[in-house]
Every structure is written in C-alpha cells, then in structure tokens.
Amino acid sequence: MLRLDRATRDAIVAHAKRDHPDEACGIVAGPEGSDRAERLVEMVNAAGSPTFYEFDSTDLFKLYRDMDDNDEEPVVVYHSHTATEAYPSRTDIGLASEPNAHYVLVSTREHGNNEGPVEFRSYRIIDGVVTEEEVDVVTHLPARSTT
Amino acid sequence: MAIEVRIPTILRTYTEDQKSVTGEGASLAALIDDLESSFPGIKERLIDVKDGKDDLRRFVNVYVNDEDVRFLGGLEATLSDGDQIVVLPAVAGG
To answer: Which residues of chain B does A51 touch, with a Cβ-Cβ cutoff of 8 Å?
Structure first.
C-alpha cells in the first residue's frame, strides 16, 4: 500500500494537469527504508512529449546527489499518461529501475488541463512484474517513529 | 590506481549489495571490463552492441566527477586515479 498525504497527492495531480498534454514526471523522496513519501520533487520531462518522459540527465544526477546527502531514496516515482489509462505501459515496465519505489500513474485523459477527477493509481514494478496496490490518502502522514 | 564507482540499487545484486565499489582502468571501457571481472554480469547491464560496436546503454547514465560521460567521450572517456563514477539508470517511460 502507498500512503500519501493529501497535499502531496494534490500537488502531483496539479503537476499532471498543468503539463497536459505532455507527460509530467517527478518523485517523492523519503528517508531510506522508511517508505514515507515526504518530499515532492517535480522534475522536467526532458522528452517534452505526450507519449514519453525522461528526467534530464543532469537533473537526475543532482536529484540523486541531494537524496544521498539527505539519506533519502525515491519512495514514489510518478508520471502521467495523457491519452491512456493510469496503468504502466510496456516501456514503463521495461525501464522501471527502482525496485523499492511505488510507481504512481496519473491519467489526465478525461479532463486535461481542467478541473475534474483523475485516475490516480500506484504499482510495484519488479523484474517486469506489475502489482497494483491500494493508495491511502491521509490528511497528514503519521509522526515519524522515534524508535 | 583506484576509481570509486557508485552502484544504483537495481545493480547491487551484482555487487553483493555494495553501494560503492572500486575498480581501475584508463578509460570507462577499461573500467567496466575490470568491474566485469569482479562482478560478472554487470557489463551487460551497462553496455550493448550497436552497429557492431560497444556503446553505453541508452537508458543508463554514467557520470565522471559529476559530469555525464556522454559529454566526455562515452566509453572512450579518459579516467584517472581518484575519479568518482556514479551510475544511475534513467528515470523514464512512456
């Protein structure tokens, strides 16, 4: 299960709507091993495409260096589909390279840049196998465990 | 001559879970060959053959001292003792 606070969920949706008809992409970082999606980082889609996304290689390097400095990892990797359902494409599955991440897909096919509901779904993608999981949206993440 | 190489999560199955390993080589190609001798299988994840020639895989990024190696000559990039290499899979999809 993926647990997300509402503000982060809404920010991902807003990013997807803003970038429609191109795909939007980004991550939510969190402390290593914690599975807590705490820090949203919107990334530029270097492909600038309605059918493909790719983090710019220099941005990618900086992102991972920052996470490394903060003892973080990508808890969520998200992107949008702008004409198809919120389900990983063959390309998504082939290129998924974060076995610990929740892969979030948002589909903006129905309302595009406008107000209105979107499909918001989450998956694990490990060795080419896709497993959908529940998304639990909470007002705030529970306090960090101190143990 | 020792070059530190940071290994991404997805490739740590080849490095006995080590986040960082050391290797040697005067070029990126030589370094990858050296890594392959210590961690069999890793080369194939980094390199494929295009038009009969080895090339970095399209969706693998390698950085030498913070710079994308594609701007430094790719596999031919010259390395020196103390260089820091970071390997990161592209975050990409369709």
So the answer is: 94
Residue A73: which of A124, A25, A30 has the closest Cα?
A: A30
Per-residue pLDDT, B93: 98
Reading the block at residue A28, the tokens are 């939510």
Name the residue of chain B whose CA is nearest to A88's CA. Answer: B94
Please provide the CATH number assigned to the domain covering A2-138: 3.40.140.10
Homologous superfamily of the B3-89 domain (CATH): Beta-grasp domain (3.10.20.30)
CA distance A51 to chain B (A): 5
3-class DSSP assignment, residue B32:
helix
Stretch (H or E) spanning B38: helix B28-38
φ, ψ of residue A96 to 5 degrees: the values are -65, 120
Q: What is the ipTM of this complex?
A: 0.94
